Amino acid sequence: MDGRGRVAQSLTGAESEAIRVEPRRAPVVSTSRALVPVRARVRSASGLDRWIERQTFLIKYCRLTRGGGVVLSLLIILGAVAYGVVKGDHVDTVVAAWQDTRDALANVVGLRITEVALSGNKHLNREEVLARAGVTGNTALVFFDVGTARTRLLADPWISDATIQKLYPDRLQITLTEREAFALWQANGRVNVIGTDGTVLEPFVSRPYMSLPFVVGRGAEKQAKAFLEALDRYPEVRDNVLAAVLIAERRWNLRLKNGIDVRLPESGVDQALAALITLDHDKKLMSRDLVAIDLRLPDRVTVRLSDAAAQARDAELKERAKGHHGGAV
After folding, report:
1. Which of 140, 158, 178 represents a domain boundary (last residue)?
2. Domain coverage including residue 146
């Protein structure tokens, strides 16, 4: 006992064990392989799986405003419908149905096209023009796209220009400028009717085009207008021409109706044609038994006889030679 009446006791007794504090153990970090498969699965997840996980996370943890769930559901439904329309190639059908519905609503208030004033069409009839422009009995004037209609009309090779005007509330005016059939063009074994600018108008199947000038060869459709205009200045030659053949896209040959080929130069065509007329007047050149008349050189004309004419000429020369030798004896 100490001076204050307290009993001194040892701290190593039984009671001291009751208040003994165990030392805190450090947390054990597991190195178990249980996490390995999860990580492997994450690494091997496809792009689609990761996308689904992200969307699920957003839907689960993002707070939607009032009505957001309904909106989200509608968006999902519309997305699925749109995907089905595109995937099933139903876009044109859906667009056409929408346009019909839209036009029907506009027609209720008196905006349907009831009159179409059409002018300038010669080769295309009224029904063909309206069909190409996209005008039907239910087309509403307010929704009619003038630009699209003009583009569709110009896609027809016969139409070189088109003007379309809306006249509210219910009238439409269409003015066309059509190409004229200018010549027949043969290339790669096919014959087509062409316009003055070389546009192919249609395959040659109609008798009314039999009298058109006939040009042959690659590129001839583009150069035909200028050459045929030059040929028209020499009707004596033009009236005897069966076809004009473009050679290597550089110069022209004329195939005459009697089979003679007239070979024209690359430049100076007018001078060559004038020389041909002069020779025909003097020597009846275009009516003789020839295969070709070569006018490519400006200072000379070369002719090629047919086989029969060549044999007759050889026989005539031999007779002349015999007569000459006989006279000498």
Report:
1. 178
2. 93-178
Q: Is residue 161 included in any domain, yes or no?
A: yes
User: CA 147, 150, 151, 156: dihedral to nearest 10 degrees?
Assistant: 170
How many other C-beta atoms can be found within 10 angstroms of the C-beta atom of residue 265?
A: 15
Of the candidates 161, 169, 103, 90, the one whose C-alpha atom is nearest the C-alpha of residue 135 is 103
pTM of the model: 0.65
Give domain status of residue 306, yes or no: yes
CB 285 within 8 A of CB 309: no
Residue 60 has a pLDDT of 56
Instruction: Measure the CA–CA gap between 173 and 165, rounded to whole angstroms.
Output: 5
Q: Can you tell me which residue has the tokens 């450090």?
A: 26
Same domain? 174 vs 187? no
Q: Which of 178, 213, 240 is the last residue of a domain?
A: 178
**pLDDT per residue over 260-281, tens digit each?**
999 999 999 999 999 999 999 9
Please check whether residue 293 is in contact with residue 303, taking contact to mean a CB–CB distance below 8 angstroms. Answer: yes
The answer to whether 112 and 103 are in contact (CB under 8 A) is yes
